Amino acid sequence: MRQSILSIFPRSHAARIATMLSLAFMAGIATTWIVVQTYLDRRAELSIAEMTGGRLSQIIERCLNSLEPAKMNCAGQEKPYSFRFHNSFPREQDSFVSPLILILNDKRVRAAVRFRDNPPLPGLLSSRNNSTDLQQDSIYNPTLDATDGSRTFNQPIPASVRLASLSLAIARQDIEATLYIFLEQDQVLEISSPLLWRARFSETQGAFLTLFVAALTLSLCFPFSSTLMLPFRKLSQGTKYTRKSLGPFAPTEALAIQDNMRELVKRFDRERERQLLGLAAISHDLRTPVTRMLLRTEMIKEEETRERFASDLETIHDLVEGALDFLSLHKNTEERHRFSLSSLITSLCDDYQDMDKDVSFDSTLPIEIEGVASVFSVAPSIELSTQTRGFMIGKPKQLRRALSNIIDNSLKYGKYAKVFLGYDGSEQTVITIVDGGPGIPSDQIEKVLLPFERGNEGHKTKGVGLGLSIANEIVHNHKGEMTLNNSNEGLRVEITLPRDIFTN
User: What residue intervals traverse the membrane (predicted)?
Assistant: First the structure.
């Protein structure tokens, strides 16, 4: 629905926003005009009702004074009122009748007002709530008692004043109404006013209409603005979205951004490929002369000099091999498939144990679950233990290499390597490795994940600073994350990987 409506908008995002604002503004102007015009019309009609009491009085008195109203032309129209004669009170269904006693000069007249719906302000028809500027008791009290300083007067209220008050009270109900005057011999005079006594918007209804239109405009603007921003939200998530995936009504700005992003990514990939190829070529070309130099060091007779040369050449050889290993990650052709992380880690740890290395694996981790709170206590924490095989989809050989690098690092700088496998309660598998060592200074944690970077203690052991960076690169290739932090058990390496089916 939103997409079909969006198709009539301009393709430019700026033009769409301008169009939406213009439509909202016009809707507000139209609603305001309708409400104000309705209010002014209502006030004008109420004023007419208040000023035409004399005309209403003439109609009623003429019919009351006629000996035979049906034969004395007691029917017709005197704007804004229409009147006609009935031999009996007409019966109607689904109407509300309010009986009245009208005191017109020296006469008491039975009357009734029939409304099409329940009148919202029935109190206006009563004597206490239908006063005029003369402070009279409205329709019922035939005299007016008032005191003004030194004089007191008691005069009858004119019928025109009483009927003006009655006409205004009926009009203020904002419902279609008819006035009935009961004559002699069950004869009835029906008086109506299509202009004054009709259904119309009250002031309260006008205010509610304004609020409704404002709420409706906002409720329409929010989903449409969300639809307008959807292509940009997709673009913010990366370059995996194509022009087609952005939708047929994507704005021209989003398409231009997507094209520019794809072009920049292509240029970056080409530049990175050239750099990797150059570095790989240099590393490959260095491998042969380094190997020859290692062989020639055997010809050096002085043992100390020979060992120094051999140590330096081995360092160069390790750098070359490490660089080639790091670069080979981008050329890896291993296929992804579903496998068990638990089985992979078990096999890896068994290999280390066969070499008498202090490496252990535990696939059982405690899981903390929030209990249900009650009115008497807070939600308790429930700790469970579960064993997992950690099924996931990925490249097992690469992950084995990443874990091997981390375990080697733990054995080199720590006392042992303990591996745990669990999950974080969501769709993530968590591998944790602790080494019982001194850890890494917090200001160097991010640094050691970079290629060829080593911590302050790195000079004490052999290495080129590629083990953790290669492991980090492999984890990122699996859409995971590797974090390092210090704990009571030494350096804590935590690897979070997306899983397929976690438990079995």
Answer: 21-40, 208-230
Half-sphere exposure of 44 (CA within 13 A, CB side): 8
Distance set, CA 33 to CA 41, 113, 210, 478 (Å): 12, 33, 10, 61
DSSP line for 291-340 = HHHHHHGGG---HHHHHHHHHHHHHHHHHHHHHHHHHHGGG--PPPEEEE
Structural domains in the chain, CATH included, are: 53-195 (no CATH), 251-331 (1.10.287), 334-369+381-504 (3.30.565.10)
Residue range 284-313, pLDDT digits in tens = 677 777 777 777 777 777 777 777 777 777
Of residues 236, 254, 8, 2, the one with CA closest to residue 244 = 254
Radius of gyration, CA atoms only, the chain: 47
Whether 239 contacts 265, CB under 8 Å: yes
Confirm if 56 and 158 have CB atoms less than 8 A apart. no
Q: Which residues contact 321 (CB under 8 A, 6 or more apart)?
A: 287
CB contact set of 55 (below 8 Å; sequence gap of 6+): 78, 81
Closest Cα to residue 190, out of 91, 122, 65? 91
